[in-house]
Amino acid sequence: MTGGLPGSEHACRARLIALGVSFEAMPEIDGEGACGIPYPVKVTSLGDDVGLQPAGVMNCATAEAAARLVADAAQPAASRNFGEKIEQVRHASAYVCRLRASGEKLSEHARGNALDISAFVLSDGHIVEVRKHEAADEAERLFQRAVRNAACGPFKTVLGPGTDPDHATHFHLDLAERRSGSTYCR
Question: What is the overall mean pLDDT for the chain?
Fold first, then answer.
């Protein structure tokens, strides 16, 4: 399925392979209206031994940013805070043709440009849900803060618990292009 891919897509997919990401190339998704992904990938892991559950359809750049976040920030934070490795990342949403919760603009999910992470499953079976953690959950709070802070930069939008009720149980991570070139992290 790589025939006809632009060079940037070939390069991105080569980087996914180097990161240990398991994915399958898919045909173009031409959704209703402006929804769709020209060169989608169906991702089943975000790196060696880190499953993505369920499999998520997204563009290559989103898959790469998520895999780098796991490798560069989430795995070290899991080791530091729990003495464990992440074995699985659970997500609540990847590609879906829909408007933002406000109903005003098309969601970045509708372009395969976003991933909503809801939990991390550690090698000992412990599940770290993305949510507001109580003071007694110090390791979870520190882990979640580290992942959220590291996501801001590679991703252009980072929303999560404390942002608003719509993001109380997951990290919304997207690569939205902004006129100012800045990031929006809350």
Answer: 93
